[in-house]
Amino acid sequence: MAGERIYLYDTTLRDGAQTQGVSFSFEDKIAIAQELDRIGIDYIEGGWPGANPTDNAFFAAPPALETAALTAFGMTRRSGRSAANDPGLQTLLQSPARAICLVGKSWDFQVDVALNIPREENLRIIEDSIAAAHAAKGEALFDAEHFFDGFKANPGYALECLLAAHSGGARWLVLCDTNGGTLPDEIERIVTEVTRRLPGAGIGIHCHNDTDTAVANSLAAVRAGVRMVQGTLNGLGERCGNANLVSIIPTLMLKMGYTTGIKCLPGLTQLSRSFDKWLNRIPDRFAPYVGASAFAHKGGLHASAVEKNPVCYEHVDPTTVGNKRTILISDQAGRSNVLTRLRDFGIYLDPKDPRLDQLVELIKQRDVAGYAYDEADASFEMLARRGLDMIPTYFKLVQVDVNNIIQYDDQGDVRTRSLAVVRVRLGTRTEDLVTEAADGNGPVHALDQALRKALEPRYPMIKDIRLEDFRVHIINAERGTDAVPRVLIRNERHGVPDWWTLGVSPSVIEASLEALLDAFIFELYRSGVDSTYR
User: Fold this and answer.
1) Helices marked H in 77-145 — which ranges?
2) Cα 327 from chain centroid?
3) Is the pLDDT of residue 310 over 80?
4) E strands, 196-288, in order
5) CATH code for the structural domain at 7-263
6) For labelling, which of 245, 286, 350, 468 has a CA lying 20 to 30 Å from the CA of 235?
7) Of the given ranges (2-16, 68-82, 351-365, 517-531), which has the lowest mean pLDDT?
8) How far apart (Å, rounded) are the C-alpha atoms in residues 487 and 506?
């Protein structure tokens, strides 16, 4: 019931590592484990000792954890071997882990087909293995693989598997929806039956997301009596992923009233986004609770209501999970949206100021032309400040030349060389007219390098600005080669928040140039750099 303690078990470093395209290094695993411990996860599954060199290295030199129980994952003993004579199981028992989680079959079909052993022998294997893990560590967990499929096919045998593990001393009997095909109502019904048949046993849940219900299934299991939830950061996992702990944790605490070991719920957003950076992935802006769009309001009606009382369109206060409210700017924006965004930038405009209506109209015109300012806050701020005559002149672009030379050799191999030449006026004197050229591995790279050569001598901080992401979106693809591209650029500089800028033009080079110039000017202005243009 609400108020009770729910234990959180993270399997990112083992089950999450099975995600296509994901590979953790030893250093990654150490850093992620430390972050999970810092936020208050109860169990951190470090991997499978003996399965691969990275997991071996991790358990050979495990991180010092303050509160979390480092857990080793592995299989029950093999058929025909005793627990003492099974090398795989002994590797687990001799690891420095505080707890051991053993996976075993609980679906009679799997026992018959995959293991090809008598069902009674499978029960002995489970009990013997769990007893050995309990004796070695004092805490053993049993992952009942394919439990829900097994229960639906043969509930008596699935429960016998749990009873065998319980007899062996398992603290937690974890019910696994391994194929991810069970729905929330089934989960709740089956878990209710399990808790009725095994009163006093610690029951856990491990859900996969193949029907996009892993979070809902986990919460349904908690309602039915589960007190341990297994999952991964950002729902990482093979196939469609695992239950997403980043969504489950705040729902348990803020919606369902349970307590957990989480020490800093407002640290959740930063943990989720930092984890994506470890993976070299762009954070999912639409992720519940922690996504950049989770508390973003675009329609004028919504923004106006949220301004009066956020409860109108927000289910929780974004600060409780470390996120923030964002008022988006687009052709749907009303005056209240624009006023709110201006205040976010430190611009306090009188609602009766005629420039406000002019700015709203300009935004709508630009949105029709393809400028999606809800994706590029920095470019919107530049648009607003220019309209209010707040941006100094740092430089003036006079001319840009970009050439691509495509060469073919006798073997048909292609070599492309891009050359950009820019002419920039840094002031009104004759000597302030600067011309620079640069090569690049493409026209945008060449243009970026030429601009930097021209601007950095006057504004050295530009050399610290890094272009971290470059995206091209075709606005009206039905026009074929006559379509208009929108370029989005994510920029970073050490020690400051990153920023997005955009450009729109029939020429992708011109659109890129617009986004690049906005990126440089925005950071010069934000950093308080004085203009040297005289």
Assistant:
1) 87-93, 108-110, 119-137
2) 22
3) no
4) 202-207, 228-231
5) 3.20.20.70
6) 468
7) 351-365
8) 11
